[in-house]
């Protein structure tokens, strides 16, 4: 039975020294020696790039860092060289000296953590959701409802000249006054000259009144053909005695309400689809707006039946007259019209709004325009259906 051999200081020093040409020297001096540390560092960096949320303050601590392989290798070499100076302590423990391995001691020692700056990722950090605001607690108080004062303070009493009308003709001539008839006669004569200067048609106010009277009578006695009104059997003696068929057709071919020289074609600024009858419409609207209004008013559409082939003709299946021109009318509970517009498809034109009016949409802007003539702060009641409402 052999006796245990005790190691002295020289044996321990020789055992700790690494022979020249060994793989340990190459691993300690090579950049690729710490493969495990490099692999761990690559995995951590990949996680940081693919998951920006790891950059939150709760994840990284200033006291935790990722050491580089070069710094760890140098620290291991310093530890190994410094251990040779403590041979006396190693000699006092012979049972553990045989288990010393340079490779295991190098791997077992770990570098101390060095504080490093925080990693800044080029990816945008996720925005933390805002905390919901606490709900406001409303305090309801029981009290009596006090409605506002809605007493009507406007004037709805008819005065002169409305109280002096005794016949329907006087009522009609109030709207078609002498100024309007003179304007129509002048524009009709001008148009006949522009149409054929060799055969001008001189239109007078008297002939124009006769022409308008025959047109109104045609609504009461409809005929499949206008020429039948001058027939000896089916004709009407009043029409035959008022105007001949030739004069009626000649006047109908030149009737005009506006000067074509001022017409602006489609696509240019200021184009008006109702240019041909604009003077007539504006005159009638001013006459209607001057009538004192009643307390309750309504805005709705009305159909003017026609069989004419015109792009302004509309189709409303829920109306008694399904085909015709659609009129947007402001009227009262007695069916009197105070203002109106002819639907032309340009109801949302910015040029039709005043500077102090908001854009509420095509249908709501109609109510605003038709109510311009309604007196303010006099508690008028205006009604309209869901076609004109908006938030």
TrEMBL record:
Segments forming a coiled coil: none
Biased segments, Polar residues type: 93-107
Domain PiggyBac transposable element-derived protein: from-to ranges: 167-391
Range of residues in the leader sequence: none
Pfam families: DDE_Tnp_1_7
InterPro entries named among the record's database cross-references: PGBD
Record region (Disordered): 85-132
Protein name: PiggyBac transposable element-derived protein domain-containing protein
Protein source organism: Parnassius mnemosyne (clouded apollo)
């Amino acid at each position: 039975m052999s006796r245990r051999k005790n190691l002295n200081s020289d044996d321990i020093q020789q055992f700790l020294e690494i022979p020249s040409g060994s793989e340990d020297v190459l691993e300690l001096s090579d950049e690729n020696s710490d493969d495990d540390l490099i692999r761990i560092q690559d995995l951590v960096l990949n996680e940081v790039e693919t998951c920006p949320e790891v950059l939150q303050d709760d994840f990284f601590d200033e006291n935790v860092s990722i050491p580089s392989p070069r710094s760890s290798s140098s620290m291991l070499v310093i530890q190994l060289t410094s251990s040779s100076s403590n041979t006396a302590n190693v000699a006092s423990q012979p049972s553990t000296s045989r288990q010393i391995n340079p490779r295991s001691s190098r791997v077992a020692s770990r570098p101390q953590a060095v504080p490093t700056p925080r990693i800044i990722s080029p990816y945008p950090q996720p925005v933390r959701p805002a905390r919901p605001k606490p709900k406001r607690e409303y305090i309801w108080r029981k009290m009596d409802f006090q409605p506002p004062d809605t007493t009507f303070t406007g004037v709805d009493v008819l005065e002169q000249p409305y109280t002096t009308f005794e016949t329907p003709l006087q009522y009609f001539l109030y709207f078609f006054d002498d100024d309007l008839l003179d304007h129509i006669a002048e524009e009709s004569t001008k148009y006949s000259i522009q149409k054929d200067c060799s055969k001008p048609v001189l239109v007078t106010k008297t002939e124009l009144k006769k022409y308008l009277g025959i047109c109104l009578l045609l609504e009461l006695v409809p005929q499949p053909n206008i020429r039948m009104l001058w027939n000896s059997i089916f004709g009407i003696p009043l029409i035959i005695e008022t105007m001949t068929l030739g004069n009626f057709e000649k006047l109908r071919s030149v009737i005009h309400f506006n000067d074509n020289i001022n017409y602006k074609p489609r696509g240019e600024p200021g184009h008006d689809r109702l240019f041909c009858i604009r003077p007539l419409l504006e005159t009638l609207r001013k006459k209607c707006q001057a009538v004192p209004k009643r307390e309750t008013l309504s805005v709705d559409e009305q159909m003017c039946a026609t069989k004419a082939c015109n792009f302004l003709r509309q189709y409303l299946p829920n109306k008694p007259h399904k085909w015709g021109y659609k009129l947007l009318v402001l009227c009262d509970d007695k069916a009197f019209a105070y203002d109106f517009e002819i639907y032309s498809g340009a109801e949302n034109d910015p040029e039709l709004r005043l500077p102090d009016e908001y854009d509420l949409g095509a249908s709501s802007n109609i109510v605003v325009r038709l109510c311009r003539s309604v007196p303010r702060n006099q508690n008028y009641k205006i009604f309209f259906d869901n076609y004109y409402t908006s938030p």
